[in-house]
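Structure request: Cytochrome b5 heme-binding domain-containing protein, Aspergillus versicolor CBS 583.65.
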Amino acid sequence: MGWVGAATVVATTCFILYRHPPASWFPEPTAADRSRPEPASEEKEEKAAPRAARDEEPAPSITPESQPTAPEDDPTEESQTTPKASASSIPALDVPSFQLNDGETDKKSLVTQKAQQDKTPQITIPSPEPPSTTPSAPLNIMAKPSPSPSTQPPVAKDASLMPPPPPPSRLQPPTLQKQSRPQPQNSLSPPAGRLPPPRPSASNTLSPPPSAASSLRVPQGSRPASNMNSLSPTPVTFKPIKKASKRAVLEPGFSPLDWAALTSNPNHKLRGANLPPTLIKVTPSMLKSQNGRKGSDAWTSYQGKVYNISPYLPFHPGGKGELLRGAGKDSGKLFLEIHPWVNWDAILGECCVGILVSEHEAVETENQLDAMD
Ligand code: HEM
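Returned structure:
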C-alpha cells in the first residue's frame, strides 16, 4: 500500500504542476520570445496552409489566422505574438497574386510585405498565380481596347495606366452628346454653332422617335413630286377633254376608208364643176371668193397649190367647222399646228384645182394669151 500512496501523491503533484505550472518554468515570454516564434509560425503556416486556406484567409484578414495558429504553437502566452505573425503571413499570400496581376498597382502591399515577397520566389506561388492572373489580365486587356462600354470597374483599377482614358473619352462623348442636346436647346447661339451640326445626326440615329419621323420624312423627299403631280392632274385631264371636244363624230359612210374609195374613182370630179381638166392659175382674189358661202365650193391653198375642200368636209375627222376655218385662204399654218403628221396630198390630191399665182402674174398671162390670138 505504501507504493500505491506514493504513486498517487506523485501523480497528484504532477497533475497539479501540469495544471498550474510555476511562472519560473517560463522565464522568457518577453519580446525576444515574441520575435523568435513568429518566423517559425509563419513558415509552418505557409507550408501547412494549402492554397484553398490561403484563398479563404485574405477575406477574414489578420485576426482569424492568428487564433488558430496560436493554440497550435503555444497555447498560453504566445497568443499576443501569433496575431502579428498571422497578420504578416496573410498579406504575403495575397501579395503574390497581386504582383503578377498588376505589378505596379500593388506596390503598396509590396512595400509593406517585402520580406514575405522575398520568400515567395522560393514557394511555388507563381504557379498558383497564373490562374489568379488570368482574370486580372483580361481586365487590363479590356481596359486597353476600351470599346466595350462595361469597362468602368477595370478603368477604375487601371486609373494609373494611360490606356483607360481613351475608352472613357469614347464613353463620355455619348453622355456629352446627350447633354449637348439640351444645351443647344437651352443656349441656342453659342454651342449650336459648333456641336449641333455633327451631333444631331448621331442623336437622330439613336433616338427611336426621330427614326419614325425620319421614316415619314424619307417618303416625303420622294413625295414632293407626288404633290406636284397632285396639281398636275388638272392639266392632264384637260388634254383628253380637248381631244374629245375637237374630235368630230363622223356620220356613217364618211370614214377615211370611204374617202379613200371615193378618191380612187376619177369620174367623181372632186375638183369641182365647170373646171378645165388641167390645173388653173388661181389668184388670191379668186381664192378669197371661193370660201364655201352662197353655194360656192370652198377652196384653200397649201404650199402654193389650191384645193377644193368641199367634197372632204363630211369626211374631216376634226369636223366641218374646223376645216372651213381655212376656206378662201391659206390653211398651211392651221394645218401644221394641229396635225403636221397628216399627209395632205395623199388625202386631197384628187381635189387639187390649180396653182396659186399673184394678181399681176394672172394679168400678164391673160395679156400673153390675148396677144397670141
Ligand atoms: C382649216 C384647216 C384645218 C383645221 C382647222 C383642222 C382641224 C382638225 C382638228 C381639230 C382635228 C382633230 C384633231 C384631233 O382629234 O386630235 C383634225 C383631225 C384631222 N384632220 Fe384636220 N383640219 C384642217 C384641215 C385638214 C385638211 C385639209 C385635211 C386633209 C388633208 C385634214 C385631215 C385631218 C385628219 C386626217 C384628221 C384626223 C387626225 C387623227 O385622227 O389623228 N385636216 N383636223
